[in-house]
Amino acid sequence: MKKKNVELIISGFLICCSVAIYFIIIPREVGHGGFHGLSPALFPKISTLIIGILSGFIFIKALVKKDITMFSLTKKEFLTVSIFAVGILAYIYSIRFVGYYISTILALIGSMLYLGFRKWRTMILLVIIMLLSLYFFFEKGLRITMPRWFI
Fold first, then answer.
1. Looking at the structure, do residues 54 and 122 belong to the same domain, yes or no?
2. Which structural domain, as residue segments, surrounds residue 43?
3. Torsion angle in degrees (nearest 10) through CA of 33, 38, 42, 44
């Protein structure tokens, strides 16, 4: 695989995605109104803005930097990244059919197993802590209802 300036490419891609999400996707897809005067678009806009700004810093740093960070992937590493990317796409797609929480449980366990983690008690504890944290953050704190079964 060819060597490329990874920081420049990825940060540039993230800047483009952030702009598209902030100005096109969020206004079209996120509803209006909300609880206590907060817009449902507040969290997505803040998250997207933070990602865009940090990507901008990385992009500028990559342009200014004299020594270019290069890398190349072996076939094994490329296969590992590809399998993980397919797993993430499967996770995103499965949310629509089995809901956010069940998909997240399966994705977390699948990721840990794929990365070689084998301690079941620790895995289950991590999954429970993660799900409770996500539940209280999104559903109770931000009052965002996560997708349920068969939308």
1. no
2. 1-72
3. -70
Q: Is 99 left (phi over 0), alpha (psi -120 to 50) or beta?
A: left
Task: Encode pLDDT of 82-128 as tens digits.
Answer: 888 898 888 888 888 888 888 989 999 988 888 888 888 989 999 99
- 74 pLDDT higher than 50: yes
Domain closes at, from 19, 51, 72: 72
Q: Are residues 31 and 96 in the same domain?
A: no
E strand map for the chain:
4-5, 70-71
Residues in the chain: 151
Using CA atoms, how far residue 51 sits from 9, 21, 23, 73, in Å, is: 15, 11, 14, 25
What's the whole-number mean pLDDT along residues 14-35?
80
63 lies in the same domain as 100: no
pLDDT band for position 4 (50/70/90)?
Answer: very low
Domain tally, the chain: 2
CA 132 and chain centroid, separation: 18
Tokens 């990244």 correspond to what residue? 81
